[in-house]
Every structure is written in structure tokens, then in C-alpha cells.
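Write out C-alpha cells for Trehalose-6-phosphate synthase.
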Amino acid sequence: QEVLHGALPGANVLVVSNREPYIHNHSALEKGIVVQRPASGLVSALEPIMRACGGTWIAHGSGSADRETVDEHDRIQVPESSAAYVLRRIWISEEEQDGYYYGFANEGLWPLCHIVFVRPTFRLSDWQMYQSINQRFADAVVAEARTDDPVVLVQDYHLALAPRMIRRRLPKATIITFWHIPWPNAETFGICPWKEDIIEGMLGSTIVGFHTQFHCNNFIEGVDRFVESRIERELQAVSLGGHETRIRPYPISIEWPPKELRQLPPAAECRSDLIKQFGLTECTRLIVGVERFDYTKGILDRMRAVDALLSRNPAWRDRLAFIQVAAPTRSKLNAYAKLQAEAEALAAEINERHHGRQDVIHLVPMHYEPADVFRLFRGADSCVVSSLHDGMNLVAKEFVSSRDDNEGVLILSSFAGASRELSEALIVNPYDTEEMASAIDRALSMPVEEQAERMRLMRQQIKENNVYRWAGAILLDAAKSRTRERVLSLA
Ligand code: G6P
């Protein structure tokens, strides 16, 4: 945290993202306004950073009561209790949201970058909406900037065009763009009809960051293929129209220790609460999964693995339960509605096939607030993260962080960026059902000493490489580049 304060003293820091960290909604039940913490890896990572270093966070106001909580400049202090930073909301109409968010960002870029065999859809009208909303975010950055050289942290695939738009109006700004999802190889990215515009938009940044070196390499390969520019491979630098951009890996992480841990009951209590809540017998072993209901997460694949394990080894019947919490997300889109229906049908089919005294699959299509997620993690014997492709995946890190009892086994997809750091997890290929079934079997049979050894190593890894380290590395690079610019402009 000290690094954060020391890196850019006195700088005006602005974060720009589509998703906001706090959503205010009208509540029918509680007759008032309730605050929701959205399920978003981006938000989990950036929120502690903003609490630590202050500044302004510009995001789309998406809650039904959001407009009632802001002042005349569309701003609100959050978190309300400690007034740590300013959230500036911008407003997007339903029609704009259909084109910019559902359309181009989530039917185009999301499947394109994840390579999960959902065919990306590109419509000219979505693209036009994407351009105009990027401009709206860029205008908000200019309006919120208190100096002509702010530090602007642009987040994710919703805002690929904003960096160049901001650069045009604030040429001295330090713009850092972080891409929270994978970046595919040039062959794949080449499908996008507006690939040049996207890449040029991002090259308005001072630094473009990805989770892994592999994604940096893919990006540079795409620049090489599609844009007339100068690439210095040693420096991982690209120059376009006299402006230089550095491409860097920054593996994202979580707050350590997570603040949720402060008020959590011991693991045994969390476990017995879950057993009660789901009506299970005392000796049931618990496997959990927590994500947004997204087709990139491999939710069907892990259910199939549980199915395969029970078919292979019926002795597990009535002795294990798989609790999958899946927050409905982007449900307006066909691919998402279809996944939820398929998952519900598959759960019913598996429960029928292995019918005993209790259900094996417990699908909870609900949003859980962070404290409830942590309670679930702490009560579990194992957590499965079987993403078909994922930039990092912070659920894996959160599960490990919740286990200060050093118990529990993480089963982790080799296609999630997190698998590069958490090598003591049981690493699986989610496309290989039998392998995943064996991993679940192994997790549930693992001696506690081995669990503890693996858990300790993973906890140490996350503790050392927590989200403050991530932001510190980015801000230190930003500070270096500001010094370089200043020195060069004096020469
Ligand atoms: C991923 C994306 C984030 C996004 C989050 C939740 O983590 O990288 O940008 O906020 O999913 O998705 P949503 O569409 O609900 O914002």
C-alpha cells in the first residue's frame, strides 16, 4: 500500500471502467435503497486500490436507484462510510446499452477473445454504439481531470477506443489500459472487422497491460500483422504516429488479507451451516463453484465431471454434494440464457441418474454478496475453477485466501491465468471429463497434511503478489514513463 502512495505523489488518478463498484437499487422487500457489490473480477481487484489511493472512478450507473444517490455532477463518495474516493457515474440508455455492452462488447469481443467456440457476432450498428459510448467515457475523463497530465487507468474490453480519444484531448496524460480478459492470437483476432481501429485505439495508451506475457506476445503479433507501426521487440514497445506504447504483463490479484475474512466464523461453523442450508447429511463432502453464469467458466464441464465420478465410483453417492452458485449475467443474450437452461437440465438429469437420499448437484442461480461467497469457500472441502479460458480468475485466489485454516483443495483449469501462479492446485484440462473426475476424487481423498502444504504455498504466493503489488508495479511504471517524458521534453 505504501508503494501506491509513494509512486505518483499528488497525481490526479482516474479509473475508467464499464462496471461500477457499487450499484444502488430500489428494493421491493426492504422498502428503500440497497447497495450491491457486483460479481466482477475487475471490481474485486480495483476497489481495494481505489480505497487505498483515492481519486475518481468513472463508470456506468446501472442500478435502478443510482440516479437518486448522486449529486448534480453525477458524483457520489464511496464507500459512504469512509469517503475514500469519488464515483462519477455516466448514463447509458437501453438502446445504447444493447449496442455497446450487449452487442459489440459481449457478443463480439468477449467470445472473440476467449476462443470458446461461441461464434462472435459483429454488427455495424453495435460498433457505432461502441464508438459513441467510448467517446462518452473519454469526455467524462476530460471533464473530471483536474490537471492536463492526469493518470488515467482505463479498464477492459468495453473501452478499447477510449485511450486514443483521451490522448487527443489530453496529450500529456499518462494513460494505462489494462485488459482483464485474454488476448487471442493474430489469426483469431483478425476475424474482427474493426481490428485496426481497436488496436489503434489501445495504442493511445502509455502502457497496455495484460495478465500474462503470452497475451502481450499475442497483442504485439496482432499489431505487427494489422497496423503500420514500429515495434521494438526487446523493449516490448510500439510506436504509432510518434507516440510510444509499452506492452507489459501485470498478473492481477486480490487484497491481502481480504477484508471479508475479518468477520467470518470458523471453517467448521461455515461447513455445518452449509450442511443445514442444503439439507445434507453430516458426513457429506462439499465441492463448491462460484461464478457468473458465463459460458467461459466451464460450469457444464464440471457438472459432467461429478457425474462421471459417481458413475465410475458409486460409493460416492450420498457422500458428496456439489454446490454451484452462479450469478445470472448478461441474460438478455441468447448464449447466456441457453447456458442457464442447459445447466438446469443437466443438474436435474444428474440428480435423477444418481438419485439416493439427497441431491448431488445444487445449482443456485443467484448473486451472492462477498461475505456469503467467503462463507461458502470456508465450509467447502474443495473448490472447482474449470474455466475454458480466463484472463486470470480471481475466484481461485479468493478461495485460497479464505482458508486460513490451511484446509481445502483447489481444482484449477490450466486455461486460467491463475494456474501459472497457483501451481500447487490440482491443475486440470476442463475439456477432459475423466481427468477432472479423477481430480475431484483425489481432492476429496487428500490427506490434511498434503492439503495444508499446498495451501500454505499458495497462500504465500498470493500474499506476496497481492493486488497492491499489481497496482504498485503499474503505477511505478507509470511514474517512470512520466519522468522519461518530462526529461525528454526538456532536452
Ligand atoms: C469480467 C470482465 C469485467 C466485467 C466482469 C463482470 O471480469 O473482465 O469487465 O465487469 O466480467 O461482467 P459484467 O458484464 O457483469 O460487467
